[in-house]
Amino acid sequence: MAVAIANRSAALFHLKRYNESLIDIDLSLSKGYPQHLLFKLYERKGDCLKILASSCKVSFREDMGRHIRAVRDIMPGEIVLIEKPFASVLVPQQYWMRCNVCLKPTVNSLPCPNCVNVIFCSEECCKESQKSFHRFECKILGYFKLLELDRFALLVLRTILTLPANTVMNYTKSKMSSRYSKSKKIILNDKNQYSWDDYNTICDLVTNEDKKTAKELFSKSIKSFMLLKLLEQTDYFNDIPVEDLPAVKIQATTQMLNHLLSFPCNAHEIFEIRLDPSSVAASVSSEVGAGIYSTLSLFNHSCDPLVTRVFYGDVCVVRAMGLIKKDAEVTDNYGAVFQMSQLDLRQVQLSQYCFKCTCDACKYDWPLY
Ligand SMILES: [Zn+2]
Ligand SMILES: [Zn+2]
Ligand SMILES: [Zn+2]
């Protein structure tokens, strides 16, 4: 049995069904595959993992900007990316139904020990929140509604609160950095990788500042100042020496303004699909929150996308919807697919992202489905 399953894993490997091959390899190992042949299975497992780990790469072209490209054929249903957000927030109507840290639904929730604004799914998430952003946010969350600050403002604040204040001065948007890949126009970490938890990648997301009106820029500047005033109500700046405070506050406000400009074009809505058991077509998407994902933000839009997103709490899983050929650009959808929405409506929906879509569905005005 173990040998038969191992042989099937070899056949699946040659058919490029790497996920299924991996499952069979593990099954064969658990069924007692002969010891003296084990090296073959481990070698195949290593090959599968290597191939799966590198289905895509970040590319750059003057006319397309940064984008994601397939480095091999990607099979329908295959996972292209699993990414945790740098920061995420719930929409207010979900505050009493989901954990404020992982965004998963909970029925046996735990309250915050110090405020009545949030709940957590477990001791672990509660402790995590007290160690990180909620330690500061706890005192000021109530003001967000009063000041009519939206979810992007809270997401910006939470992004800053995940960093210790004494490191705020280390971040600048300098393209002169030695870690900046000029050919791909991306920032790499110490291991030469583009990483989801590297704050520099969040700072480097496109802001479209030059396409904003003076009124918009003024309004965002006021918002960043309001966020600074809220931060001052917390202990966030407590460890900063008094002589450094003005410079650190200016830097924090500058970064918050940068994020207030970039997040509306780069943050992703986190949603869940409410499945209608009688008809898949009647199932609806329900908004859970918003998150900022550095790699996910590099996927360009198409009205006829090649991948789809599913969220588990705030973890995003991106899967191929059909066969994606090697070298093809891997496109996502920013909320307007050609099957459901007409060309002119799609262009209006996409206007917040400051680009005009030129995908084939737009070029040839494909009919609705
Ligand atoms: Zn949780
Ligand atoms: Zn609290
Ligand atoms: Zn389009």
TrEMBL record:
Residues 47-335 form the SET domain. GO terms for molecular function: methyltransferase activity; zinc ion binding. It comes from the Eukaryota. Keywords: Metal-binding, Methyltransferase, S-adenosyl-L-methionine, Transferase, Zinc, Zinc-finger. One of its GO terms (biological process) is methylation. It holds the Pfam family SET. The keyword Zinc-finger applies. The keyword Metal-binding applies. InterPro entries: SET-MYND_domain_protein, SET_dom, SET_dom_sf, SMYD4_SET, Znf_MYND. Protein-lysine N-methyltransferase. Monomethylates PRMT5, modulating its transcriptional activity. May also act as a histone methyltransferase. Plays a critical role in cardiac development. Acts as a key epigenetic regulator of gene expression during cardiac development via its dual activities as a methyltransferase and negative regulator of HDAC1. This is Protein-lysine N-methyltransferase SMYD4. The lineage of its organism: Eukaryota, Metazoa, Spiralia, Lophotrochozoa, Annelida. The gene is 20195802.
